[in-house]
Amino acid sequence: MKNQEKVNNLIDRRKEAQLGGGEKRIESQHKKGKYTARERIDMLLDEGSFEEFDMFVEHRSTNFGIDKTHYAGDGVITGHGTIDGRIVFIYSQDFTVFGGSLSETFAQKICKVMDMAMKVGAPIIGINDSGGARIQEGVNSLAGYAEIFQRNIMASGVVPQISAIFGPCAGGAVYSPALTDVVIMSDKTSYMFVTGPKVVKTVTGEIIETEELGGANVHASKSGVAHFRADDEDEGLMLIRKTLEFLPQNNLEDPIQTVCTDPIDRIDDVLNDVIPENKAEAYDIKNIIYTIVDKQEFFEFQRHYAKNIVTGFAKFHGMPVGIVANQPNYLAGVLDIDASRKAARFVRFCDAFNVPIVTLVDVPGFLPGSKQEHGGIITHGAKLMFAYGEATVPKVTITLRKSYGGAHDVMSSKQLRGDINYAWPTAEIAVMGSKGAVEVLEARSISKMTAEEAQAYIAEKEKEYNDKFANPYEAAKYGYIDDVIEPRNTRFRIIRALKTLAGKKDTNPPKKHSNIPL
Ligand code: HXC
């Protein structure tokens, strides 16, 4: 072959590889409302930035006649490119080739980009759309998965790992996304489960549809496996780009500060009045978040799961921060099992990637009851405590209203190495609310009274308790909070706190690893 013929041959081979499983299967993919693996990469990465590896890799299996069918690339597209000019490594499973199923060589391709991401110190993005282990490859496929899992584990906390699920993700395959930092599922076109509806029926007799068992809605609202439920793949891809905006390339770097046009000394008078006079009345913490952050932009994580705690990224003066806030609008902002797990994971995510944490507190305590106790609220609550106490990033805490009992300690209190702890004048930092306190302290006296006497006595004692404890000054007296601030100045005070803490260095004692109550 002459040189030009060789070049033409290369071009032909590339064209063929780019067709994956062929036009018919691409058409079928589109009919299901899904993009192809290549289209997803093109849409996600900066234009023209994608460099592909291993386009000509083929499987080596001979079982069940599969040796008669080969596709260049073997069902997964791998390589690197940029997002907003920053390098990322990526793999995208191609459902048009053997249903995106994972073979030995398929796994090797993924491992190659994961290894490179670790060497370079860049995020790794996995787009999942696969029928799972390639059945013809047997144990080699299982081994391939385990190679990926091991790399997910090693990369955890070193480079950001983001998983998008845009099709099937079943069986052991679910564990790669589960080991990553962020899981995004497309609504109606994706599902994740360890065992599908058929096996569920055989083993347990339960009859359940795919969507109900492991659709995006279920994982975004019930299990908490997914951080985002995207309306479609376009939104899913946007969410990947958005997430990376708040993260550094790796754990040795800081998140990138961007130019901020929103004044840092903006006074928000509305905040002075935002806490209802009636202590039992709810309000939406998100309105407060939107008011204080740059340009009212809050990128919420796990929006549909454990709504009693709000987590997400925002910026203060262009500086990325993680926000954790109790939500009085939902279950009065109480800490329960799900909320504790959700917030703990988010705090650790921020800490791993040097994202400072701003905590907004209005928490009546831990949710009482046998369901919570038997479900292990002690262990799950301890997770959140552990996460805050272990975190070494700058931690700024603002107590808006209630901060009672154990929940007070947990929510980034001074003693859990909260760096700067402010309170609004409406804050109540105490062991418990006045009603509960009087019931415990005065039970004996009350039992000897008539109903009328008791009513007046309780009211008097509650007032006494409120005067003494339902304020921020008792805590301020001991230096447990650093200042009582005017609510309308909150944005400015947070920004100044974050700037002050920018050079903060804190460490944990040398150890193999901690033993967080999992
Ligand atoms: C080999 C597979 C495959 C697989 C699909 N295909 N899954 N080939 N191994 N696991 C092939 C099909 O033969 C078909 O080939 C093409 O991919 C598209 O599949 P369809 O069934 O036509 O597509 P669809 O109707 O959309 O159904 C998708 C599906 C179904 C629901 C994913 O294919 C399915 O149930 N697949 C098997 C899933 C499974 O049980 N996987 C193993 C799970 S256990 P042609 O040539 O016709 O286009 C597991 C263990 C992992 O994964 C353990 C890790 C530790």
3D structure, described in words:
It is a single chain. With 518 residues, the chain is an alpha/beta fold. The protein has three domains: 3-245, Alpha-Beta Complex (2-enoyl-CoA Hydratase, Chain A, domain 1); 269-427 and 471-500, 2-enoyl-CoA Hydratase, Chain A, domain 1 (Alpha-Beta Complex), CATH 3.90.226.10; 433-469. It is 39% helix and 17% strand. It contains 20 helices and 17 strands. The chain has helices at residues 3-18, 23-31, 37-44, 104-120, 139-155, 175-179, 197-204, 210-214, 216-223, 233-245, 285-292, 337-352, 370-374, 377-390, 405-410, 434-441, 443-447, 451-469, 473-477, 490-500, and strands at 51-53, 76-83, 86-93, 124-128, 161-165, 168-170, 182-186, 191-193, 228-230, 298-301, 309-316, 319-326, 357-363, 395-404, 420-423, 428-430, 483-484. Strands 10, 11, 12, 13, 14, 15, 16 and 17 form an eight-stranded mixed beta sheet that branches. Helix 12 (337-352) runs parallel beside helix 14. The longest helix is centred in the last third of the chain and has 19 residues, at 451-469. 46% of the residues are buried. It binds hexanoyl-coenzyme A. The site of hexanoyl-coenzyme A (HXC) has 15 residues, from helix 5 and strand 6.
